Amino acid sequence: MSLTTFDPTEIETRMRASLEALKRELAGLRTGRASAHLLDPVQVTVYGSRMPLNQVATVTVPEPRMISVQVWDKSNVSAVEKGIRESNLGVNPIIDGTTLRLPIPAPTAERRQELAKQAHKYAENHRVAVRNVRREGMELLKKLEKDGKIGEDEQHKNSAKVQELTDKLIKEIDQTLAAKDAEIQKV
C-alpha cells in the first residue's frame, strides 16, 4: 500500500486476495468427495528437485470417489506415489501402469470433526489477514490526517468505508466456511 495516498480499491483487492486464498485452502480439504484440488499441496521429488504434482502428471476425477493421476514420464511413477503417500492425505494410491488411482474413502465422524476444525482454523487465519489490512488502512488514514493531507471529515468517511468493506469480507469468509462445513458434515 502506498504510504502517501489512500486507495480503497487497493485495500479491497488485498482483502479479496485473502478470501481467494481461503477458498483455495478449503478446496484442498478432503470431504469424502473426490476433488482434483485435493492433490494441490502434494510435492514430488523428480529430476533432482521438488515440484508440484501437477507439473509431472495430469489429475482428473473420473468418479465421485476416485481421483486418477496420469504420470507423464513412466520413470516418475514411484516418485509420484511416494509423494502422495507422504502428503498425509489419507489416501492409498493403486498403481496401474503410468496411472495412479486414488480411491477416496468416506471420512469417519472423528475425521470430519478434524476437517471442520482445520477449516475453522483456515477461516480464522484469513479473518485476521483481512483485519490486518483494515488496521493498515486505518493507520494510514490517521497518519494522513495528522500530516494535514486530508481533513477530519474525509478521514472519518474513509474509515467508515474501510470498516464497511471489512465487515463485508468477514461475512463472505463466514459464508464460505459455512458452505464448506456443511459439505464436510454431509455423510
From TrEMBL:
Pfam families reported for this sequence: RRF
Main location: cytoplasm
GO molecular function: ribosomal large subunit binding
Gene3D superfamilies: 3.30.1360.40, Ribosome-recycling factor (1.10.132.20)
Subcellular location: Cytoplasm
GO biological process, one term: cytoplasmic translational termination
Segments forming domain Ribosome recycling factor: 22-184
Signal peptide segment: none
InterPro entries with a match to the protein in the record: Ribosome_recyc_fac, Ribosome_recyc_fac_dom, RRF_sf
One Gene Ontology cellular component: cytosol
Keywords for this protein: Cytoplasm, Protein biosynthesis
CDD domains registered for this protein in UniProt: RRF (cd00520)
Annotated function: Responsible for the release of ribosomes from messenger RNA at the termination of protein biosynthesis. May increase the efficiency of translation by recycling ribosomes from one round of translation to another.
Similarity remark: Belongs to the RRF family.
NCBIfam families assigned to the protein according to its UniProt record, in alphabetical order: frr
Protein known as: Ribosome-recycling factor
Gene that this polypeptide is encoded by: frr
